[in-house]
Amino acid sequence: MTATPSAADAGTMQIGGDLTVNRLGFGAMRITGPGIWGDPPDHDQAVAVLRRAVELGVTFIDTADAYGPDVSELLIAEALHPYPENLVIATKAGLLRSGPNRWSPDGRPEHLRQACEGSLRRLKVDRLDVLQLHRPDPAVPLADSLGALIALQQEGKVRHIGVSNVNEEQLDEAMELTPVVSVQNRYNAGDRSSEDLVDRCQADGLAFLPWAPIQDADKNPAVGAAAEAHGATSHQVLLAWLLARSPQVLPIPGTGSVRHLEANVAAAAIHLTPEEVAAISGGH
Length: 284
Prior knowledge:
By secondary structure, this protein is α/β, with parallel strands linked by helices. Helix content is 39%, strand content 16%.
């Protein structure tokens, strides 16, 4: 690993054909309070984490209006606005929060429009780089929800559209309606339920943003073996495995700690052997 960790060690990728980012991002969910609710326990530390992420070469930050709610976006603007030219901020809309650890879908077009307008204000931008539908709402046709995002894009308020927590059929429907640049689903070495979607994103040139990327680190013996071989932690090996899984995978590990952030970014310089990648893939 390099002496000074940098997200640039992971290489770059394009999102939507016009945004180039380093291929290790930052997920801004955990800079909020417990249960992803309210303000962080240490406001100054949350600001420090965001600023340190950019110092370490992170050029892609993922957030959502539901994180806090509103808190994550407000902190990003406080810490980083005016933004570096190369920083891409992706946010999400489509979930309501009624309390800690409570999430309920709301894909009504009027709600999505209201959420977009709120994100624009909180992030202090005229256009969102990427707006992702946070989760399809079973009570609202997907075409109606995406129609709202398409209208916002046509109005110049959204550059690119992404989807989150979708299956392959829903991705097909979305891509028939509009160009989609990203898919954000739960995916890690232990949970491979979105395996086909990773392959699909690679084939179609979409960014795949795995959430919960480093869960269950200790359940796979091959992870521990690779960690020992590389002088790394299990979490770092799992991030390195995601980077090796596909050039379209853009890991977005999140943390509220500068120390953990630096450890996560250091994973960008770990290069697993094909044998290690295969062993970890087969050990879930």
